[in-house]
Amino acid sequence: MTTFEEQTECVVEALFSDLFSEDETQCRSLETDCGGPAQAASEPPPAFDPVLVASRLRRMGDQCNLDFERVSSEDLAEVLKGKMEKFEAAVSSLSRTWSAQNPEMAYEIAFLSVSVKLVIHVAKKIPTVVHPHQLTQVINGNPQVRSYIEARGGWENLEN
To answer: Using the 8-state DSSP alphabet, how is residue 104 labeled?
Structure first.
């Protein structure tokens, strides 16, 4: 049995593998959780698949409609210059703002969406400053997000 932290690390590694692979459709083509047969309530939950979870996280990031270049935030400005030590503060601030603007969205979903979109945004601009451990630490370091994921039965049930 792996810990939440180890699962998060696997998910983020899968996400980064997709981001920096030559074939941009690799992770997205593995989205077998869409449109498949419904799982019966008596069936055991699906096994943890970090690639599948990374695909879900990437879709969540795609839903984030924030324009980072137009948002006024000192922490975000620093991150966009490559100063990733401000990443956690920028994600936290942006998530709260975006969640407040979209009350139907849980803060935890906003947090995951913003963190993934921001990491992808910075990786496209300055790939040398982005590392998986930054996203892993931000997710693992947020007890509210961790509790939200664990309350749903873990990463494999995130969208359930």
So the answer is: T
The CA radius of gyration of the chain, in Å to the nearest whole number, is: 16
Does residue 95 contact residue 107 with C-beta atoms inside 8 Å?
Answer: yes
Q: Say yes or no to pLDDT of 22 above 60.
A: no
Is the Cβ–Cβ distance between 142 and 8 less than 8 Å?
no
- Please list, in sequence order, all residues whose beta carbon lies within 8 angstroms of the beta carbon of residue 21, skipping any fewer than 6 positions away: 27
Q: What is the C-alpha to C-alpha distance for residues 31 and 71, in angstroms, rounded to an integer?
A: 31
- Six-digit token string for 131: 């590392």
The residue that leads in pLDDT, 30 or 159, is 159
- 153 close to 160: Cβ distance less than 8 angstroms: yes
Q: What is the pTM of this model?
A: 0.84
